[in-house]
From TrEMBL:
Residues 1-23 form the signal peptide. Belongs to the AB hydrolase superfamily. Lipase family. It holds the Pfam family Abhydrolase_1. Gene3D superfamilies: alpha/beta hydrolase. Residues 70-367 form the AB hydrolase-1 domain. It comes from Durusdinium trenchii. This is Lipase. The keyword Metal-binding does not apply. Keywords: Glycoprotein, Hydrolase, Lipid degradation, Lipid metabolism, Signal.
Length: 402
């Protein structure tokens, strides 16, 4: 990585040209563009890291490095990728904005998305077993692998974990799993943007239609390996159009997440350039199971399967109340996936838990506003929390140059 460091030092020296270089808005992102290419427009250096989980998945992370600075890990949501933290104007893209503020920023990628199709033994496009996972596995394996790797690489004691959507489900699972003591002492703050646990009241067009038309079964036949990747969109779109009798003919972020007037269409287009980034059918199935049952628990294999997997007829529920990491809940009043009613249920489970340090509902925010919003309210709140739980020293002008 040392050549990268020299290049990044060189690049940072040019940062004085920064404010005029990109203008007030943001450049348009093209599908063929790499993270490195895009961030070079802002003179931001990028490192790539490969992180191996205990069950041998290899996850690719992007680091916007600041040697020795406090660390923030940003974990994207379902069907998304590390791109989601970069698509808005620089001040409103959390990845860019926190790096500018002086943080060492790591953008992790979930198993099976376009960046993390890698395994020490399984071949993603030959072995179906590669796709045999849900956010449960991301919770039990990916979270702790990422945190351990990043703390080792940075020689820091702890970091802040910011999760969006599925990124929060993962952390809620991890925080009550076997590594909870490790995470408790090494995660100084967990920021949950659109916390996804219960889904009884969700009204996402895609999830509702998926459940109604039993899309899981149909999709699994058509796409035995990954599903919802960018390259498959044309085929997937026409298949969905047929099986949903015309309800869904176009897969866009809006269809999956809904949107609000507070969202910028330019930023949504930028997000769409690398969305959807794919996941397993089983992952979507697992979420779908929560629509029927008011429950947030492990994968339901049916009575026989559950007896085999868990020794119980019903899948065990996750113990949300065991959360011991300082946690901040950011919710949107117009969120169709993590809507106010379902978040209320989560808050009841966490009632009296002194580790919930912040909880706010943002007026007219959709599931996407954190990524593509025209508003600064939430980012101002998040930065205030960081100043308290993971403060960065104000940077000297000279430090910005090296
Ligand atoms: C971005 O934020 C910085 C400080 O946080 C501020 O000085 C600047 O005016 C902001 N730029 C825009 C375009 O909002
Ligand atoms: C898989 O991971 C290895 C590192 O373990 C890396 O060198 C290789 O480029 C990765 N392959 C892909 C397709 O990401
Ligand atoms: C998926 O993994 C589970 C164990 O976690 C196993 O019981 C099941 O048979 C696997 N399914 C497939 C299709 O490989
Ligand atoms: C920890 O980091 C050092 C170098 O910084 C590396 O040599 C070592 O392999 C890392 N250990 C783990 C478990 O990643």
């Amino acid at each position: 990585m040392s050549w990268l460091r020299s290049v990044s030092a060189l690049i940072t020296i040019c940062a004085c040209a920064w404010p005029g270089a990109v203008g007030q808005g943001m450049p348009k992102i093209h599908h063929s563009e790499s993270t490195e290419e895009y961030l070079s427009k802002y003179y931001i250096p990028v490192e790539e890291h490969f992180i191996t989980t205990e069950d041998k998945y290899i996850l690719r992370s992007f680091r916007l490095p600041r040697q020795g600075a406090p660390v923030v890990l940003l974990q994207h949501g379902v069907l998304a990728s590390s791109w989601c933290w970069l698509v808005n104007t620089p001040n409103r893209s959390l990845g860019i904005s926190l790096w500018k503020m002086g943080y060492d920023v790591w953008l992790t990628n979930s198993r099976g998305n376009t960046f993390s199709r890698n395994h020490t033994e399984l071949k993603p496009f030959l072995d179906k077993q590669f796709w045999n996972y849900t956010f449960d596995d991301m919770g039990y394996f990916d979270v702790v692998a990422n945190v351990r790797y990043i703390l080792n690489a940075t020689s820091r004691k702890d970091l802040t974990f910011v999760g969006w959507s599925q990124g929060t489900s993962q952390m809620f699972v991890a925080a009550q799993g076997p590594d909870r003591d490790y995470l408790k002492s090494h995660v100084n703050l967990f920021v949950a943007l659109s916390p996804v646990t219960y889904l009884t009241h969700q009204s996402s067009l895609l999830l509702s239609v998926a459940q109604k038309f039993r899309l899981g079964v149909i999709l699994e036949k058509a796409f035995p390996y990954d599903v919802f990747s960018w390259s498959e969109l044309p085929t997937l779109g026409s298949l969905l159009c047929k099986v949903t009798l015309g309800v869904i003919c176009d897969i866009t972020v809006d269809v999956i997440c809904g949107r609000s007037q507070k969202d910028s269409s330019d930023a949504i287009l930028n997000l769409a350039a690398h969305f959807p980034a794919g996941t397993s059918i089983k992952d979507l199935d697992h979420y779908e199971q929560f629509i029927d049952y008011e429950h947030f628990g492990r994968f339901d294999y049916g009575t026989m399967g559950n007896l085999e997997h868990y020794g119980l007829e019903l899948p065990p529920e996750y113990s949300l109340s065991e959360l011991e990491i300082p946690t901040a809940l950011f919710c949107g009043s117009k969120d169709t996936l993590a809507g106010p009613k379902d978040v209320e249920r989560l808050k009841m489970d966490l009632k009296g838990n002194k580790h919930v340090v912040f909880s706010k509902e943002y007026e007219d925010y959709s599931h996407l506003t954190w990524m593509v919003g025209l508003t600064d309210e939430w980012i101002t709140d998040l930065k205030a929390l960081l100043r308290q739980y993971n403060p960065v020293r104000p940077m000297e002008a000279s430090e910005l140059l090296v």
